[in-house]
Amino acid sequence: MFYAQTSSPFGRSGGMANAYRQVGVETSVHSASPHRLIAMLFDGYMDALTAARGAMRQGQIEAKGKAITRAARIVDEGLKASLNVSEGGQLAEDLRSLYEYLSLRLTQANIRNDESILDECVNLVEPLRAAWREIGDKVAAN
Question: What is the domain range of residue 27?
Fold first, then answer.
C-alpha cells in the first residue's frame, strides 16, 4: 500500500505519522482552555528551538530556517498576539517588549547561524513557561 507524504503547517514531512500527529494537535487545540493554549504555544516554541539547534549542528540550513521561522511565528502570532495590553497593564507591556526582543534575536540567530542566541531565547522564555505551568497546576487543583 502506498502512503503519500504529507506536510504539516510547520514544514515537516513524514507521511501518515505526521498526519496522525497533526490530528492530535488539532484535537488538543479545539478542546483546550485558553490557559492550555498558551502552554501549548510555549511548548511549541521550545520544540522549534530544539529542532533549530539540531539543524544548525547538522548543517541543515533549510530545516534550521523553518524551525526558527516557526518559533518566531509562535512568538509573534501566538504569544504576542494573545496579549491584552489595554487590560494587562505594565506586565502586558513588558511581555510585549520581551516578545519583540525575541523576534529580533531569532532573526539574528538565523542569519548568524548562532546557537548561543538560541540558548538566550530559551533562557528568556523558560521561566515564563514554568510559571505558566505552575499557574495551570494551581487552577486545575481548584
Answer: 1-31
Burial of 120 (0-12, 13-18, 19+ CB in 10 A): middle
CB distance 129 to 46 below 8 Å:
yes
Number of domains in the chain: 2
Residue the block writes with cell 502506498: 2
Q: Are residues 120 and 135 in the same domain?
A: yes
Cα–Cα distance, 1 to 17 (Å, whole number): 15
* Rounded CA separation 16/24 (Å): 12
Averaged pLDDT, 33-40: 90
pLDDT tens digit sequence for 83-107: 999 999 999 999 999 999 999 999 9
Which ranges of 32-84 does DSSP label H, i.e. alpha helix?
Answer: 34-58, 61-73
Say which residues have a Cβ less than 8 Å from residue 142's Cβ, sequence separation at least 6. none
Cell of 21: 500527529
Cell readout for 16 is 501518515
Q: Determine the Cα–Cα distance for residues 121 and 19; give it in Å rounded to an integer.
A: 29
Mean of the pLDDT values across residues 115-130?
Answer: 97
Number of C-beta neighbours around residue 136 at 10 A? 15
